[in-house]
Amino acid sequence: MAVSRINEAGLNVNQYGNRNLIINGAMLVDQRNDGSSAAVTHAADHFIGDRFRFTENHTGSFSAQQVSDAPVGFEKSSKVTVTGTDTSLGASEFSRILQGIEGQNITHLNWGSANAKTCTLTFYVKSSVAGQYYLSIFNNAANRTMLKGYTIDAADTWEKKTIQIIGDQTGTWLTSNLTGIYLSWSLGTGSTYQSSTLDAYQAGFYMAKSDQVNLAATSSATWQLTGVQFEVGTEATDFEHRSFGDELARCQRYYYRMKPINPSGGVAHAGAFNIHARTSTQLYGVVHLPTSMRTTPSIAISSTSDMTAYHGSGSLTVSSFTMNGMTTASSAEINVTVSSGGSAGTAGWLRINSATGYIEFNSEL
Prior knowledge:
By secondary structure, this protein is mainly β. It is built from one helix and 22 strands. It is globular.
């Protein structure tokens, strides 16, 4: 007979879902790259799988990719590879991967009060460089941080790590639609962000202790992550495998990419949305987003050359693409400018006409 176990949140952990506060912890969703490798832009956020962003700020360089290499029970992982070395990090230089957890999802943790709950973080990690690594737990203002250490014991081997994280009884941990908690895995950190204090919250922002491995010091070094779970309680439970559709919807609260699907033997293109001409050059359309986003999103497109407006009896050349002020968290009003050819009061549609074309809506934390 199965034995039920009640965790600190009062939930039967053998029965209830929605335990994992991490989104896309199994690295299955990759809207931006579809599993392709991409060079990481220096000093800019790069999302490998959805919700996990990698940043490097030094003279080395990395590529990043969702890969089909994972421990038993998982299919994908996020992988970073050193493509250019930096053997001696400056004081403010670093590389890291992190996820921000929305404040509205941590209200039950009571962090910042005497009732702050303890949580448990589990993850699988693999690296070509064994040694001492650290992760940091910090708040939105980056003025409260706790450092936790873990060791990669053997190179090129999947290892499961379980780390208990006490809740902070002071400080401000937001419970709005901004970031409530950041979880960050350091891959090398300069002295400015180093601290010798472990396992306790401290004022300020830190990423690691001084003995942290500098992954960028080793040419072609790799580091991989999957199976990330952050849950209430002092014990780790089995990883919560959500359906792909459920995980995708959670990711789309923060980022949504509209793009073609290339059918077997077919031409990759996608009808994006209907448009209505107000003048010969100004066309308007509305995109109804698949889920309510965290906040009003920003918009970007791959290129105007990837977009074609079909109107009347022919196609029109798109010259600009902007989002109007009527955009909300659940729908976006788009202004498409064409060189000429529109007819006021008539309708058409906007097509993404390239296999690599896309329209993206972004409200990432």
